[in-house]
Amino acid sequence: MSARTARAPRVGATPSRTTATIVLVLAAFGFLYPLYALFRFAFWPTAQTHGFTLQHLERLADPGQSYMYSQLFEGIQNSLVIAIVTVVLMIVFLLPAMILAELRYRRLRQVIEFVCLLPISIPTVVLAVGFVPVYQQLWHVTGSVAWVLAFAIGIIVLPYAYRPIQSNMSGLDMVTLAEASRSLGAGWLATVWSVILPNLRRGILSSALITVSVVLGEYTIASFLTQNTFQTALALLQHADPYVAATFALGALLLIFLILVLIGAAGTFSGARKRKAA
Amino acid sequence: MSVVESVSAAAALEVAGTAVELIDVVKRYGSHQALAGVDLRVEPGEFIALLGPSGCGKTTALRALSGLEQIDGGRIVIDGTDVAQVPVNKRDIGMVFQSYSLFPHMTALQNVEFGLRMRKVDAAGRRSRATEALELVGLGELAERYAHQLSGGQQQRVALARALVTRPRVLLLDEPLSALDAKVRVSLRDQIRRIQKDLGITTLFVTHDQEEALAVADRVAVMNAGNIEQIGTPEELYLNPRTSFVADFVGLSNKLDGNAVGGVVTVYGQPLSVLGESAVTGAVTAFVRPEDIALSDTGLPATVVSTSFLGSLRRTFVRLVDETVVAVQHEVSDKPQPGDSVALRFKGRPVAVSPRGGA
Questions:
Q1: How many CA atoms are closer than 13 Å to the CA of A68, on its beta-carbon side?
Q2: What are the distances in angstroms from CA A51 to CA A35, A36, A44, B354?
């Protein structure tokens, strides 16, 4: 009886290597099969073509169809501008607010966390519908330019931008570091610039990269506010040329995957550099 | 590192002591008064320990002196100037914190250079002085290591070098040893004292460990409930505590019931002089040190409860007839066994008293 009890799996115990491999393979299949299907659709498109082909991409260079594709390239350009503006907004508003709350106004930390995580609980469609009248007024001032979408997208990005910075902060005793810095003669600005920000570099980088990937994948708000971004252009192109649309969708997925790899590498590189220096 | 090298590194730092004074300093957190009118004068080059239980205000006093806490009343005078309104980065103090406070993205050398960088010292001067400071704490060879590659003791030594390299007027140590293991504590404690003496820097050291305070400080200020109860040399505090709190907090004391009349307290029928000028009369608690009681052939009957070997002495707990348990300190060669019947004799040294129930 006791021997059987000893062999009984514990709740929360590490799974066996076989179980872990099976779960990993199933999960990988779930993620990778749609990508494979997309790749297959884009590059093995018809029964007449044999094997891999780039023939559909050749249409991108056709001057006769340039108007159709120019919408796509403009959308990509708009999305990149929105991504940059959104990252700047995060760095200019969110980061200082979090640092101030951590160092000076600690009671506000929970408020900031609540506000930052709130958008995750509100459906994007609801937010987008709410943004419409706001943007109707805003565009009277700015004109109908795409980068203004960064203010709206900045809100849905908040949970993803907040978490990596907060995680980085929780691993640091920022108050003591700031006090040590000030006791050594540094003012507040020098403390933040020379001590706090270098130690938050990983969180800030992760936050920025996740922001970029969310912006590149954002469709709902741009669609509701009738702006041409990468995703809305892709949706339109899907009807006219599904092969090129599939190719760009695949490219975007690979770019986002690359960004996630970069986030992981950022931390590893930082640790390795320190070890090497020692 | 040799003593000669250490002394030469100390000479290079050229730190000198400065008088520090807290005058009627008050600090409140809401309705709680953390400092209730603290008065303290530290002479140039003196090493003062602020000793007291958790929440007594010792760290608040240190942080008020450093400028990390704004005070609600009183004056803080450093070198004759009231600095109460001067921000922390302009007070010219060096501080070592309880928790490890090295900047994780910098090497030990860069950490030590930081204060000099803030003072716009040129790169060559920074490197030279930071290297000297690291040599002073015996870590010249670990200059290129990051904080996570140093042990706790090494990190605190780097923090000490970092605090000293700017040649501050005052060195503030906020329980810098509390996170370290016992052996490293003693070693670093002695090193801090040696460096402090070499440099002659005025130092305030906060601790709740009385052994630490008594071992290193020129004078110890015992704090309780936001006030300094007594300040004096370690010997004065131990042998002549002015209040029952000090008698109870500094060293081990037996709290025995007695009756005081005219400066004499009678404990279990034996008259003992009362310390100081206590005007307490009637039922009191007398604080009798274990070393002021002896095991004897005749006297107060008791039964041995337990006995502990403490190296150079032995401490035995005995139970009196009225169930009071008393600690007695005696020679190691005496080896009473639990259950043995013994007798106690008071050696007659003066004792501190407080009204019963008021200790």
A1: 17
A2: 17, 14, 6, 98
Residue type at position A21: T
Best mutation target among B96, B103, B111, B117 (most A Cβ atoms within 10 Å) is B103
Give 10-residue mean pLDDT values along chain A (278 residues).
Answer: 52 81 92 86 70 74 76 88 94 96 93 94 90 85 83 93 95 95 96 96 90 90 88 86 85 82 69 53
Distance CA B68, CA B61 (A): 10
Find where tokens 């000893």 sit: A6
In terms of CA atoms, which chain A residue is nearest residue B149?
A278
Structural domains for chain A: 62-277 (1.10.3720.10)
Query: Which helix or strand (DSSP H or E) is residue B40 part of?
Result: strand B32-42
**pLDDT single digits (tens) B127-171:** 999 999 999 999 999 999 999 999 999 999 999 999 999 999 999
* A100/chain B closest Cα distance in angstroms: 16
pLDDT digits (tens, 9 = 90+) for B338-356: 999 999 999 988 888 888 7
Distances (CA, A) of A113 to A95, A201, A210, B131: 12, 20, 18, 43
Q: Give the helix ranges, DSSP H, for B96-226.
A: 108-118, 123-136, 152-164, 182-199, 210-216
Global pTM value? 0.80
d(CA B353, CA B331): 27
Cβ of A184 and B114 within 8 Å?
yes
ipTM: 0.83
Any bridge partners for residue B319, and if so which? Answer: B303, B325
Q: Which two tokens stand for residue B287?
A: 């604080």
